[in-house]
Design brief:
By secondary structure, the chain is α+β, with helices and mostly antiparallel strands. Helix content is about 30%, strand content about 25%. An eight-stranded mixed sheet has the order 3-5-1-12-9-10-11-20. A six-stranded mixed sheet has the order 7-15-14-13-8-30. Strand 13 (about 265-275) and strand 14 form a beta hairpin. Bound molecules: ligand MTE, pteridine-2,4(1H,3H)-dione and dioxothiomolybdenum(VI) ion (MOS). Ligand MTE binds near residues 221, 464, 501 and 505.
Length: about 750
């Protein structure tokens, strides 16, 4: 089935926040961000701004009737800075004017007096000064201390990985207006309607039932709108509530870039121990997460780093520690992969270094140590339906890796200045929110008396095609035409308390709830059909492709008539269902449990060519065997895999975030922050589904696909490194991701250290 949004997307008819026609008297907001990363806020003077015609108000902390607090996991984040600023771009005030241009002009007239304090910018600095977001945590299995002496080889090192900007096409924004009786409605570009509703409730000091949050769809979120859509929703609501006029706030790309958090940069220390046969006996890793100035979801991201500490490998003895370090950067936040890419990167870096030291191919160490059925993860869950080896072997075979190796070796022999490199990357990603309580989905299904069906779920459509999947499973369960359905906006008055659309769980959780609702309705309809057809046992009735069968034979009863009769009989044509993932649990005290419904596996084969005179590289091919389970929509799923792959390649190669010494982003717009474009895309991309067992906890056996394939991008980093080693065999391996062209060039000539000065 085609993505149901494709038609309106290509015609430009899809509706985002900024497409909603504005009401009369609507004001437009522009946010004033802190010019410095750390400081005391002595005085703000709005008077000149307020003198301008068309400027209605400048709102700030003092205008908040409720709490100036939007922290979700930890209450440590102000909506507007009150006495101190903690990062460049931290909101201080919002100008509300008749047009956005006017508001921006007025904003330039605001005078602020800030006493600058020294900012902390890196996780290691914060760690040295004991500035933490939350207590550090350690996952352990076996006994690392006792094992080191049994290791034939011990490899130690450090690694660094930079952050990543989400670059959703639709920037953050919200549109808010008053309804009657003190109620307020907010159209928000959020992945989490509940979080916006809760944030607004706290800031305004009014209960949640007075607040309606609506999301038609969003123009991409990638995690950046899981927690960080809340401030803009709260600011728009605050203005609408205090000024009694509608207000629209849409961030410009540069404001969005400056004010919002990104993927967390990490710094790592690692130590890997192997026996003579290259079996991994022991792994120790300490991760320093750069969380930025407030908690946001950093403690949860840190948790996923711990869960994925051993990647797709079996490690009998491991000790993995993570520190969430508080710095003066915008609060870093959820982004596709959520702390897992960082953990997998450092593990691969350790293998790469071990392979270089022992003079073997990384592939040998990788294959030998892949997870097998029944292996235990450090958090105790057992690998079940483990497809790690299957994906690897299938990729090796299908993509003729042996032949590829030979071709690359021949190329490298012939060419002096251009070198090719090859990598394999095995993926294992856990599906479920690591916080067990978030694993619940909801669906509200109404059959209208004309036989059409209206569905609302807790899930937010953000381009991942989840609404198409919801529609597919509903149409399949009721066995009626997909044409009869509309999937409505995500709205807190129709679906209360939804979990964020995140952790790749949107389709599983809300799709399962939708199936449950449709099954309940189908049972009711069958009951009415039974009466009408004068049968005895509900099992005599079957509804298939809109035809009602009795004892296996077609009847004259139509779908429309059955629906009509059900309503006539005063039987409800509506159902609200709630699904909670069974089986999963986790105990934080022991750091053990069974946190994931299942794991998603895969293997990526990546080949690259590096121009060693220029330090530039091209990605020749990425070929993947991916474990989709039994996909219900392979077009959408392959689209997700390809998109995630590109985002992952960008993360590891050309997407570079740099801040200056004062904590200001140097690359703060698309002119300077490079994301992959079509010319940078691999010349050849192939994603092949693995033949695998459908998992019962996946939606009709169709495994979650939103995040896992992002991590295939890690393969590009190591393929480039392999090519670089062909040119410079003594290449220093403790490099930084992203491996930009500049870093590549310098490292090829052993001048990488110059960059760090
Ligand atoms: N695909 C598109 N087109 N746009 C997005 O913003 N977000 C990703 C992924 N795929 C995203 C996307 C992220 S971070 C997640 S968690 C999942 O979609 C969420 O949706 P799902 O749970 O329905 O897979
Ligand atoms: N969000 C979250 C996530 O709150 N918990 C998670 O485990 C998670 N995992 C991936 C992406 N977002
Ligand atoms: Mo995705 S990072 O879980 O929104």
């Amino acid at each position: 089935m085609k993505n149901i949004d494709s038609r309106s997307h290509v015609r430009g008819e899809s509706i985002y926040v900024n497409d909603i026609p504005v009401r009369e008297d609507t004001l437009f907001g522009v946010v004033l961000g802190s010019p410095c990363a750390h400081g005391k806020l002595h005085k703000i003077d709005f008077s000149e701004a307020l003198k301008m015609a068309g400027v209605e108000a400048v709102i700030s902390a003092k205008d908040i009737p409720g709490e100036n607090q939007i922290g979700s996991i930890i209450q440590d984040e102000e909506l507007f800075a009150d006495k101190e600023v903690h990062y460049v771009g931290m909101p201080i005030a919002m100008v509300c004017a008749k047009t956005e241009a006017l508001a921006r002009k007025a904003l330039a007239k605001i005078k602020i007096d800030i006493e600058e304090l020294r900012p902390i910018l890196t996780a290691r600095e914060a760690h040295a000064e004991k500035k933490f977001i939350c207590p550090s945590r350690t996952f352990r299995i076996g006994d690392t201390d006792a094992m080191w002496e049994k290791c034939a080889h011990i490899i130690e090192g450090q690694a660094e990985m930079g952050g990543q900007e989400h670059i959703y096409l639709e920037t953050q924004g919200a549109y808010a207006y008053m309804l009657e009786a003190g109620a307020i409605k907010i159209h928000s570009s959020t992945q989490a309607t509940k979080y916006v509703q809760k944030g607004v409730s706290r800031v305004l000091g009014i209960p949640m039932h007075k607040i309606e949050v609506d999301v038609n769809r969003i123009g991409g979120g990638f995690g950046g709108k899981e927690d960080q859509a809340t401030p803009w929703g709260a600011m728009a609501a605050l203005a609408a509530y205090t000024l009694r006029k509608p207000l629209k706030l849409i961030l410009s790309r540069i404001d969005d870039f400056t004010m919002t958090g990104k993927r967390h940069p990490y710094s790592f220390d690692f130590k890997l121990g192997l026996n003579r046969d290259l079996q991994i006996l022991c792994y120790q890793m300490e991760a320093f997460q750069n969380a930025g100035a407030a908690a946001d979801v950093s403690p949860a991201v840190m948790e996923r780093t711990l869960f994925h500490g051993t990647g797709s490998y079996h490690v009998p003895n491991a000790k993995i520690t993570c520190h969430s370090c508080k710095t003066n950067l915008p609060p870093n936040t959820a982004m596709r992969g959520f702390g897992a890419p960082q953990a997998m990167f450092v593990f691969e870096a350790a293998i790469m270094k071990a392979a270089a030291t022992l003079n073997v191919a990384p592939l040998e160490i990788q294959r030998k140590n892949l997870l097998r059925e029944g292996d235990r993860f450090p958090y105790e869950q057992i690998a079940k339906n483990c497809n790690a080896g299957k994906c690897w072997d299938s990729a090796y075979e299908k993509f003729a890796v042996e032949k590829l190796k030979k071709e690359i070796a021949a190329f490298n022999k012939k060419n002096i200045h251009c070198k090719k490199g090859l990598s394999l990357f095995p993926l294992c990603f856990g599906i479920s929110f690591t916080k067990t309580s978030l694993n619940q989905g909801r669906s509200l299904v109404h059959i209208n008396t004309d036989g059409s069906v209206s569905i609302t779920t807790g899930v937010v459509e953000m381009g991942q095609g989840v609404n198409t999947k919801i529609l597919q499973v509903a149409a399949k369960t009721l066995s009626i035409s997909p044409q009869r359905f509309t999937i409505h906006s995500t709205n807190t008055t129709r679906i209360a308390n939804p979990s964020p659309t995140a952790a790749s769980t949107g389709a599983d959780l809300n799709g399962k709830a939708t199936i449950m609702a449709c099954e309940a309705l189908r049972a009711r309809l069958k009951g009415v059909a039974l009466q009408e057809l004068k049968g005895r046992d509900p099992d005599e009735i079957e509804i298939k492709d809109e035809i009602i069968f009795h004892n296996g034979s077609k009847t004259d009863l139509t779908w429309e008539r059955l629906v009509f009769l059900t309503d006539e009989a005063r039987i409800s044509l509506s159902e609200h269902a709630h699904y909670a993932t069974p089986v999963i649990h986790f105990d934080k005290a022991s750091e053990k449990g069974h946190p994931f419904a299942y794991h998603v596996y895969g293997t990526a084969v990546t080949a690259v060519t590096v121009d060693c005179l220029r330090g530039t590289y091209e990605i020749d091919l990425v070929k993947v065997v991916h474990d989709f389970g039994s996909s219900i929509n392979l077009d959408i799923d392959i689209g997700q895999a390809e998109g995630a792959l590109m985002q992952g390649i960008g993360l590891m190669t050309i997407e570079e975030l740099l801040v200056d010494q004062k904590g200001k982003h140097i690359y703060d717009r698309l002119a300077s922050y490079k994301i992959p474009d079509i010319y940078f895309a691999p010349k050849n991309v192939e994603v092949v589904p693995l033949d695998s067992e459908p998992d019962a906890l996946a939606l009709l056996g169709s495994k979650a696909v939103g995040e896992p394939p992002l991590m295939y991008g890690i393969g590009s980093y190591f393929a480039i490194l392999m090519a670089m080693r062909e040119f410079n065999p003594t290449l220093k391996l403790d490099l930084w991701a992203p491996l930009t062209h500049q870093k590549c060039l310098l490292a090829l000539y052993d001048k990488y250290g110059d960059l760090l000065k």
